[in-house]
Structures are given as C-alpha cells and as structure tokens.
C-alpha cells in the first residue's frame, strides 16, 4: 500500500469560519455575519434569514472567530511544522467586493490574500483556493435574493476574474463553489437566498443552482485562459447512501438520494444535465430558464478534477415505520446499527470513504481530491495545555487508510485536506466546542478566551503520517503479515 510520491497532504479551512475581522479594512458583511450562536437559535436563523437580519443577537461567532486575519503567520507556520504540502482555504468575496457589485475591488482585501499566499510560498505550501465557500456578500442577498437572480453570474465572474488575474502564478488549484449541492439543503448559505419568498421553493433552488453551474463553467474557462497551468475543480458534499434493506424499493431510494448530489457534478464534470434530471424537474414542477448559449457554455467548460467532503455515509428506507434519524446532520439519514456516532450524532464509517471514492471515480473518471474529512468532538484542554484527542486520531487513521485502499483500487487521487485543521466556528451550529483541528484555539461558544494556539496529540501524529507519506498507517499490517 502506498500513496503517490507527489500526494498533496494538508488541511482545510474557510474564510467565513476562521478569519474574523468581519469589518476590518473595508470588508463587507457576509451571510454568516447575521447568524447567532446555537444557543440563540442559529438553525432557525439559517432558514429564516430575513427575520435574523432584523434581530440583535447577543453574540455572532463569525465576527471574531479565531481571528486568522491577524494570526495567519502563526497558523501557517504551524501547518508547515506538520509538513503540509497544500492548504485549502477560501477567499471572502465581501472582503474583496464588499457589496458584491462594487465598481472596484477593495485593495486592502486583495493585499491580505497576497500576504497569505506569500506566507504559504515561504514554507512551500501550495494553496488550494475555494472561490465561494458559503460566502456570497450579504448585500447581494438583500438586493437580488442571491443566486436566484441571474445577475449574480456576471458579478461572480467579475470577482473571479479579479482574483484569478491578481494571484496568477501564486495559486494553481481552484474550486468554484464549496459543496455546490448544499444549495438544496441550506439555501441561505449555499445560495444567499431566502426560499420563503418563493411560491415553489424547488423552482427557486434549482434555478439558482443553474446560475451557479453556468457561473462555474464560465470561471473554469476564464481560469484556463488566464493561466493554462490552473487546475479547476468542483466540490460535492459526498457520502454513499446505503439501502436500509435489500428490498428493491430501498435500493432504488438510495440510488435516487445519491443522484440528488451527483446531479451537480454530472453537469460540471460531463458538461450537460443528466437524463434523470427531466423527471426530477417534472416531479418538482421545475422549469429551468436558460439563456441561449448556456448549454454550450456548460458543455465546453468541464472541470479538471472532482473534490468532495466526506464525513459519513447515509442510510435510507421507504418504510414509514423506520423513522429514527441521526441527530444534527444536514442530510436526513437513518441510524445505521453497524456504525458508531460522534457527540453530535454523526456516524463514523471509514469504509464508506473508500466506497464513495470508487463510486465517484467509476462515474466520472476524473482525478479526485478529498478536501474535507474529519471528526467534530468536544476537546478538553488540560492544565498543562494539552489535548489528548486519541478519538480523532482513530477516526482519521481509519479514514486515511481507506483512502489509501481506494487509491490501490485504481482511484486517481491528488490529495487530502482534513477539515478544520485548526479549530474554527462550525458552519451549521456556530459552535467552537465542535472542534476538528490538530490545533486547539482557546475560544469558547460565547467568544471568550485568549485565542492562544495549542498543539493537540493529533498534531504530531499527522506530522508523522505526512512525513511517511502515509506509510505509518500500514506498519502494523505489514508487521502482522
């Protein structure tokens, strides 16, 4: 078992979950900047954003977050100490175009990312940059109801052209949208829109999805024109859906559940809407409005690679009596009796990662990149400022091993960036206590703490994994042969 010699090991963050400095140096408001903590009903605010805008909550987690904006040098140095070869991060659109439709970009915002990329180069870390990671400017939500309006295509392309030209030669790996299929599940974060305004919410979501798909294709074209060395990927919130039983109805239901996500990647990787889309649209009474050249744009500008997040598999049944759902998971899923669950009710399924990778690669035959994977848990900082997170090491060890097995199966995979490589604010719940990182940040759910960084046990473990190019994980197996 071996990983490719040039395999890109690293970690992942998102601007709206780690940068903070929400009004510094001319930054505009992002979608998350109106979302409160979990204790103040963040979930309700996510799905009723217009109401959330009118309220004055006690605490907004994104406003300061872990203050990566002022700690980036310290944090990237720690990433380098682990041996990162790649750092997945995102650009904050409202930090560069505060209102989304400004005539000129905010130079201070552009300069900040110049500095971040320079720091990455200092340690020979390759940036993998997400252009929109749930970070549409709030002003575009207010003015256009976000991606439901076709005007956002032009505005997004303008923003992307600005950064693609600015960072030419500094960045070679780009993702157009984070978890593009999430627009169907959390339309405010995924599409910057309030579906409560629509007579048919499905029509609004799929029309917005079409706008994002066209925008993604246009930016893919633009990235290749600006720098032929650029590699552009799409990004899916993935996880194989299992049928609850071998009943044909359950098997078909599982296939349909997976198609809901593959729908987006079918378009981005193949260049056209899949055949099954017709029936989906008929059943949901959706009629996509297209410009004359939309189909040609999609067909001619497919992505170079497919990236995805993976945390767990899913389970579905057509039996109405089987209704025990997992807790706090954006995707509805039955409880799988063969799997363990985290403190947040997420089921852990390492083999599911191998299955998912094989399914995606069989479907598209394009290189894969695992850009999110990890375990959110409640970590305890000891008096000696240590965190003994053996549970995280166990989760990551098994997942990375199964990723290696998928590569041995014949799957081409370019790299792995585990999620929340440094503790950050949870996108769904707004909590700091749901920690994923190798680096503990002294910050609690109420925003209290010193912001000091401390290495967890998983920090040195991951450094050893990278140094051995993953071989550390298979030493016991080889010893037992």
TrEMBL record:
TM regions (residue ranges): none
Residues at the active site: 372
Keyword Nucleotidyltransferase listed: no
InterPro entries (UniProt xref): GH, GH_1_N_CS, Glyco_hydro_1, Glyco_hydro_1_AS
Any one of the GO CC terms: cytosol
Keywords: Glycosidase, Hydrolase
GO molecular function: beta-glucosidase activity
A Pfam family annotated for this UniProt entry: Glyco_hydro_1
A Gene Ontology biological process term: carbohydrate catabolic process
SUPFAM superfamilies, per database record: (Trans)glycosidases
Top-rank lineage group of the source organism: Bacteria
Family to which this protein belongs: Belongs to the glycosyl hydrolase 1 family.
Protein's name according to its UniProt entry: Glycosyl hydrolase 1
Organism: Liquorilactobacillus uvarum DSM 19971
């Amino acid at each position: 078992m071996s990983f490719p010699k040039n395999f890109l090991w690293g970690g992942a963050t998102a601007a709206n979950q780690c940068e903070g400095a929400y009004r510094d140096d001319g930054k505009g408001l992002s979608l998350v900047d109106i979302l409160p903590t979990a204790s103040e009903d963040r979930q309700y605010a996510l799905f009723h954003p217009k109401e959330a805008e009118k309220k004055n909550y006690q605490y907004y987690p994104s406003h300061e977050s872990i203050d990566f904006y002022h700690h980036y040098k310290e944090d990237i140095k720690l990433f380098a100490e682990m041996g990162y070869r790649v750092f997945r991060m995102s650009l904050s659109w409202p930090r560069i175009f505060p209102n989304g439709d400004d005539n000129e970009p905010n130079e201070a915002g552009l300069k900040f990312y110049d500095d971040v990329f320079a720091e990455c180069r200092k340690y020979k870390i390759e940036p993998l940059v997400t252009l929109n990671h749930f970070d549409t400017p709030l002003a575009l939500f207010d003015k256009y109801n976000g991606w439901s309006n076709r005007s956002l295509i032009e505005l997004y392309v303008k923003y992307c052209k600005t950064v693609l030209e600015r960072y030419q030669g500094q960045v070679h790996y780009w993702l157009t949208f984070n978890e593009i299929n999430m627009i169907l599940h959390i339309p405010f974060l995924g599409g910057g829109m309030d579906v409560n305004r629509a007579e048919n919410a499905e029509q609004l979501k799929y029309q917005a999805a079409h706008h994002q798909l066209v925008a993604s294709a246009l930016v893919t074209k633009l990235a290749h024109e600006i720098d032929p060395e650029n590699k552009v990927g799409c990004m899916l919130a993935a996880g194989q859906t299992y049928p609850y039983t071998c009943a044909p109805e359950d098997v078909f239901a599982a296939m349909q559940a997976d198609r809901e996500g593959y729908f987006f990647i079918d378009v981005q990787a193949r260049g056209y809407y899949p055949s099954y889309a017709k029936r989906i649209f008929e059943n949901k009474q959706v009629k996509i409005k297209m410009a004359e050249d939309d189909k040609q744009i999609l067909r001619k500008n497919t992505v170079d690679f497919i990236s995805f997040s993976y945390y767990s598999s899913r389970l579905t049944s057509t039996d109405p009596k089987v209704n025990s759902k997992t807790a706090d998971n954006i995707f509805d899923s039955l409880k799988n009796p063969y799997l363990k669950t985290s403190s947040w009710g997420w089921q852990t399924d390492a083999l599911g990662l191998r299955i998912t990778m094989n399914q995606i690669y069989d479907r598209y035959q394009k290189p894969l990149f695992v850009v999110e994977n990890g375990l959110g848990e409640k970590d305890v900082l000891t008096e000696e400022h240590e965190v003994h997170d053996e549970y995280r090491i166990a989760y990551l060890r098994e997942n990375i091993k199964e990723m290696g097995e998928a590569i041995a199966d014949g799957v081409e995979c370019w790299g792995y960036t585990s999620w929340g490589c440094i503790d950050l604010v949870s996108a769904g719940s707004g909590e700091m206590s749901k920690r994923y990182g190798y680096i503990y940040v002294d910050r609690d759910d109420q925003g209290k703490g010193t912001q000091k960084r401390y290495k967890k046990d998983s920090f040195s473990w991951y450094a050893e994994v990278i140094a051995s190019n993953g071989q550390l994980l298979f030493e016991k197996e080889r010893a037992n042969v």
